[in-house]
């Protein structure tokens, strides 16, 4: 499997008004759905995911297996407001490594939404799901033992890494945690348009080091991303040399 690391430089002064005008900005200011919509409008079925928006200075990174020239051709057809919002004039990409060694140590960073499906099919915070039914579950959920929450999220992340024996965590720490509302659309309203919902849940960034398990499985993990909401800015596994800052 071969793919590329794509970089775009969205213009915050255009992105924010565009997202607001199209009602694609969550109450907490999350751009995930707006960027998803912009990427889909620009690249269609070739829209890259997972992606990670690092803000106005660092821009947007994404993995894609699509041909760079085809991406540039699609980008050239985008309307001016879309092109300015995404910074399509500065679209850039490079080949990303795919020849990993079993046991290879790499630094990583990943933004994830650690959720699981409850018995009734609802999407639920992995931490709340783990303490559900405990005698003091209400107190635990309210007080939030940060150590317990971190341990549960880290266990959730380890299970994601372990799919296909892709990788295992050598060490990891929870770099940031917050509860955010993200915009999603589902079903149809009376006017025939899809209903907009604001889904609250955990928004977590982990940093650490991993050990490659099965190299082909690791490539699939990179291309697929981690957890849910991968088309909306979550789940992209960013890599760096082990020991780097």
CATH topology of the largest domain: Alpha-Beta Plaits
Note the gap between the termini. Answer: 28 Å
Mean pLDDT rating: 89
Quick one: CATH class of the largest domain? Alpha Beta
Low-confidence stretches: none
What report would you give on this structure?
This protein has 245 residues and is α+β, with helices and mostly antiparallel strands. It contains 8 helices and 10 strands. It has helices spanning 12-21, 32-43, 68-76, 80-86, 126-131, 137-143, 146-161, 215-224, and strands at 4-8, 51-53, 60-64, 92-95, 105-112, 115-117, 123-125, 167-186, 195-212, 237-241. The strands form 3 sheets. A 4-stranded antiparallel β-sheet has the order 2-3-1-4, with no helix packed on it. A 4-stranded antiparallel β-sheet has the order 8-9-5-10. A two-stranded antiparallel ribbon has the order 6-7. A hairpin with a 5-residue loop joins strand 6 and strand 7 (123-125). Helix 1 packs across helix 4 and helix 2 (32-43) crosses helix 4. The longest helix has 16 residues, at 146-161.
Keywords:
245 residues, single chain, Alpha-Beta Plaits, alpha+beta, CRISPR-associated protein Cas6/Cse3/CasE, subtype I-E, four-stranded antiparallel beta sheet, 10 strands, CRISPR-assoc_prot_Cse3
């Amino acid at each position: 499997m071969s793919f590329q690391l794509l970089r775009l430089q969205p213009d915050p002064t255009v992105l924010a008004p565009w997202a607001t005008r199209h009602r694609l900005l969550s109450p907490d200011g999350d751009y995930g759905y707006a960027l998803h919509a912009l990427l889909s409008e620009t690249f269609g079925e070739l829209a890259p995911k997972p992606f990670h928006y690092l803000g106005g200075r660092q821009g947007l990174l994404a993995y894609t297996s699509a041909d760079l020239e085809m991406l540039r051709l699609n980008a050239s057809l985008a309307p001016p407001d879309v092109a300015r919002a995404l910074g399509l004039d500065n679209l850039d990409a490079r080949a990303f490594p795919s020849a990993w060694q079993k046991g290879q140590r790499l630094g990583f960073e990943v933004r994830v939404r650690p959720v699981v499906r409850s018995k009734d099919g609802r999407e639920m915070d992995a931490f709340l799901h783990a303490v559900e039914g405990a005698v003091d579950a209400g107190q635990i959920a309210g007080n939030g033992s940060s150590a317990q929450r971190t341990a549960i999220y880290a266990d959730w992340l380890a299970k994601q890494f372990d799919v296909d024996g892709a990788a295992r965590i050598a060490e990891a720490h929870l770099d940031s945690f917050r509860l955010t509302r993200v915009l999603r659309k589902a079903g149809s309203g009376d006017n025939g348009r899809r209903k907009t919902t604001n889904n609250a849940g955990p928004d977590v960034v982990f940093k650490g080091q991993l050990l490659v398990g099965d190299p082909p499985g690791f490539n699939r993990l990179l291309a697929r991303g981690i957890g849910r909401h991968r088309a909306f800015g979550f789940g992209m596994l960013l890599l760096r040399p082990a020991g780097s800052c």
